[in-house]
Amino acid sequence: MPHGITAPCFYTKANVDVIAYRPTPVPALLVFQPPIRKAHALRILIFTTLRTKPALALGMTAETRPLCLHVYRIGGIWGDDKIVRADDKKTPRYYLKGTRLAASWQFALHVGGPNGIVVCHVKSPYLGPPLAETDPGPISITGSEWERQIVQVHRGKKSSGGAYLFRGPDDKEYRWRPISWLLLECLDSQDQVVATYRITLFAISKDGELRIHQPAQSMGDLIVATCLAIRTPDH
């Protein structure tokens, strides 16, 4: 029966059949909107989900989101120390305590603050321009996490675009490569981007922002150490 027309309602009163009429409610959406096709309804659902729950719409969970870290210089541009803070830009995650010598540099990476547990020690026999054509020599990383294993970061061949190569705990090769003066990417052996470092321009204290994607979060300490190593000390 058309909307707005009263519908019959049958009931019995004193053994007499009586027909009464009552108005039927009119759904406003059906009156003012045309029929919605399934495909159109699906597009509306996807659009609404993207706006309200983008991670769910893209098949992501909290565990698959990149780990975001912010790197700040202590003491300005020429400071030897750095602090790495969490995504809220307040909580300290790592502290880099650096030392420069006449022709080399080294730093210790601590958890949290300068008195935190030492994650690793990083040493380089080279102090010079970061984009020199010659190989500056390997950067050695040692730490309790890797148990006596020495991780070496070295420059690849000129054809590699100035990438820095190293091996992860899984014994696979990873490399940091410069995409531009302001962006570095870390790729795995399958050429998948597992981390990025975006350099902050025109900032006295902030050096950049590190994002570690889920596949590399299990070796997050090593990603942080290698990233800071190629950004130290003159980068």
What can you see in these coordinates?
With about 240 residues, the chain is mainly β. About 15% of the residues lie in helices and about 40% in strands. The protein is built from 4 helices and 14 strands. The strands form 2 sheets. A 12-stranded antiparallel barrel has the order 3-4-5-6-7-8-9-10-11-12-13-14. It has a two-stranded antiparallel sheet with strand order 1-2. A hairpin with an 8-residue loop joins β9 and β10. The longest helix is centred in the first third of the chain and has 15 residues, at about 40-50. It is globular.
Low-confidence stretches: 1-24, 26-34, 42-62
First and last CA, distance: 77 Å
Mean pLDDT: 75
Work out the helicity level: 10-25%
Can I get a quick summary?
The chain is mainly beta and 235 residues long.
How are the secondary structure elements laid out?
Blueprint: E1 7-13, E2 16-22, H1 28-32, H2 38-52, H3 54-57, E3 67-74, E4 81-85, E5 92-100, E6 105-111, E7 118-124, E8 139-142, E9 151-155, E10 164-167, E11 173-180, E12 183-187, E13 193-199, E14 206-212, H4 220-230
Antiparallel strand pairs: 1-2, 3-4, 3-14, 4-5, 5-6, 6-7, 7-8, 8-9, 9-10, 10-11, 11-12, 12-13, 13-14
